[in-house]
Amino acid sequence: MLTPDASAPDIILHLKTLTSPEAIDSMRRFAIVTETALGISNPDLQKLARQTGRNHPRALQLWKSDIREARLMAIYTAQPSLMTKAECLAWADDFKSWEIVDAAADLFTELPFWKELIETFCADNREFVRRAGFAMIAGATVHLKKEPDQTIIGFLLLIKAHARDERNFVFKAVNWALRNIGKRNSTCHAPALQLATILAKSENKTERWVGKDAIKQLTGEKLLARLK
């Protein structure tokens, strides 16, 4: 069992004892990058993170290992109050798997400069960095309930600007962000559905997919009943 005083090397050594080739094979089916994976599930890593607690310097060391599980442990144990924008940008330079990106996006939305990161990431042409921006929008829309609706609605401009990015991990994140904005509440639903309708009529096939898929979810009976 890991303890709060465990060092980064201690944690990595423990992780290596839990290696599962079968789990690695399963991860590949979900397009998870497995070159450095040990095959440990996210729930199990979260349990280990609870054992070790948060330790920001140690999290930065874990990230540098380039091991999938160590990087997820870094995300789960970093301290948002200590995380700097430079550290976020440095981590983003290493993004190469949607799973790591989405986990980091959840952490980044806890930071005071999260909106700046979204603007920076969405403007970045690298596939997984841009995905991080839209994953942050999707997460912030759900988790930051006290954030003004107008802030959330403002992200529709970024969605409109990048909805034709045909790279798989980008356009699916753009769609995810659009759907989440529309599901937030009745105030956000109308402009999100309006944008989805515009995109669904586009001559660009990627925009059409983003729009049509969002419309399906934003016009469902259960959602409309909840938003009344």
On the 0 to 100 scale, the average pLDDT is 97
Assembly status:
single chain
- Backbone shape: elongated
SSE succession: HHHHHHHHHHHHHHH
- How many distinct beta strands? 0
SSE-based structural type: mainly alpha
Helix content: over 70%
Return Rg in Å: 19 Å
Uncertain residue segments: none
Main β-sheet description: none
- Approximate strand percentage: under 5%
Separation, N- and C-terminal Cα atoms: 49 Å
**How many helices does DSSP assign?**
15
Explain this structure.
- With 228 residues, the chain is mainly α.
- 70% of the residues lie in helices and 0% in strands.
- The chain has helices at residues 8-16, 21-28, 42-52, 56-64, 68-77, 85-93, 98-108, 114-123, 127-143, 149-154, 156-162, 168-184, 186-200, 205-218, 221-227.
- Helix 1 crosses helix 4.
Task: Describe the structure concisely for a colleague.
The protein is mainly α.
